[in-house]
């Protein structure tokens, strides 16, 4: 392992030296000679499964969801690349699930060696297995905990946080607030159950108590109707009445069926968290700490809209690849993957500390933002939670409890 | 803010009044309060506070001490104040969201990092015109000038490079990769060393600017603190280059480094989230801005001790000290 790393380091030295020679002529936009030039070819593959419309029209997905973050990352990467003689090419593909494997084959045939995937968990595994050793796959959406555990893959890195990381981030804050009694309401879809399981696990881990648990059945029908709020105002109080004494209502509603209706309508005057109210997420357009304002502005100038979590995750995935390529001087997936999972890798991503990877399952460690509708509320891990390796490992499955066995 | 001309001025002052500690004026930008606090280096008290524009951050002072330059980030301008009256005399075109700036040792021109536009703007402080806009890496932040004024070094936070710029041609002639999120670049007074701090990387890269090449990387370790909490930002070196001070952000400490061996010799406990620092010209004191505790800490350089904390405005960011 060390040998490969060292060899790639020499690659950087050679590259810098080449650049030094090339730059003696002066000039800002220095480009290395053609034979030195490396191309890091990535594809952003978004698999659009049919979904009902969101409850709130503010959540309607823009056509360039994820791709817009990729566009900014590619600009950032090219700026660095122009100084080092590396070219970063990104192709965007949006397909329905039945065309995903075919789209992957086409992209690989075109020379892409890196695939950033926006898809659900089972599809991510399918694509990673299909890619095999032909490409490094980066998961920028699926939060499934089993992808980080028993169902992990050697050619798969996780940029999106897992459900356990999101639940733990919220749980730490609720315990810090001394709101340990939770009223958990979960939706009736499998992903809702998975998220509720993550909150149950977080309660055990951090000392929360599930005072009450209920399931909100999705009975189908359209998501919005004119004057629908009239019925909501009657239904939600009734649904939430006579719950055991609780400090906070936690909604596990990834399918987006009911959570947005909870705030202000619950029977008891209690704050709502989880899928509505105080939400754990990777990004929010109001985030301004740690130099994020400049990042938000650059994105908005380029794309004409606010930055969404999917955009942030695709941006981060491509920045991780660029950082690997810059530091190793290589464009090869195996070299980059080894460096990215190694001790020397680190990346700044407007979260106030460096992000690194968990080598045992390929998950990037990251602080999780806790956001209200307008502003940032807090950032987890909370200061009070300590860890022998990294405080970030207080979020999600830690190494001793991981069921992922990649032989690393 | 400790280039040779300032020191020469100090020397003259010191000789003129032997045995008496000269009083300098210390200016601190308060990012949240939109003000500049003024301190007296003799009494160590706040003597005045004045309006610094929207979100004042980077600050520097002319070699003659007459003019104060403040990056008013949310006003997209550099405000210039008369130090005698503390009144604004004019503004300079800075490009959007100016953050840090540095003056040529002669006092002109002024080099400003524009984070939003990936540019370094060069402004003539006499004619108030833009001389050049230099395209650099993503999110330019730190700007350092060599004592001979021939080399400008700019750090770009997302590209993670120190860009070496020829101040006559305004062209980049070399780039050196450093660790994540480089914030600040500081030459020694003799120009033989350049220190670049990496906030997220947690290191300071020591560069021989003549080649230029990296010769050492300084790392930090503080018992009881996680490595992530150690985030180097501001860097200052004594005139003889033998001692280097590095502000460590949320570690709430200033590292004291031996300028010959690059070993960390001490950590001085200061206020919370320490970012920028400035010496008095006689190097008796070092002032640090502590953004999260709303104060400045004052280091007695000879004793290597923090002797006092003085409350200023909210979220103090930058600091500059008068040369006389």
How would you describe this structure to a colleague?
The complex is a heterodimer of chains A (408) and B (324). Chain A has helices at 2-22, 67-84, 100-109, 121-131, 163-176, 190-206, 229-240, 292-303, 309-328, 333-340; strands spanning 38-47, 86-95, 114-118, 136-139, 156-158, 181-187, 209-216, 248-252, 272-274, 279-281, 357-358, 363-364, 368-371, 376-380. The longest helix of chain A has 21 residues, at 2-22. Chain A is built from 10 helices and 14 strands. Chain A is globular, with a radius of gyration of 22 Å. Helix content of chain A is 35%, strand content 17%. By secondary structure, chain B is mainly beta. Chain B is built from 1 helix and 28 strands. Mean pLDDT of chain B is 93; it is low at 10-18. The interface between A and B is medium-sized, with 32 and 36 residues.
Helix content of chain B: under 10%
The greatest inter-chain interface is formed by: A-B, 32 and 36 residues
Structural class of chain A: alpha/beta
Global Rg of chain B: 18 Å
Considering the chains and any ligands shown, give keywords for the structure.
heterodimer; A: 408 residues; alpha/beta; five-stranded parallel sheet; four-stranded parallel sheet; 10 helices; B: 324 residues; mainly beta; four-stranded antiparallel sheet; 1 helix; 52% strand
What would you say about this model in short?
The complex is a heterodimer of chains A (408) and B (324). Chain A has helices spanning 2-22, 67-84, 100-109, 121-131, 163-176, 190-206, 229-240, 292-303, 309-328, 333-340; strands at 38-47, 86-95, 114-118, 136-139, 156-158, 181-187, 209-216, 248-252, 272-274, 279-281, 357-358, 363-364, 368-371, 376-380. With 408 residues, chain A is an alpha/beta fold.
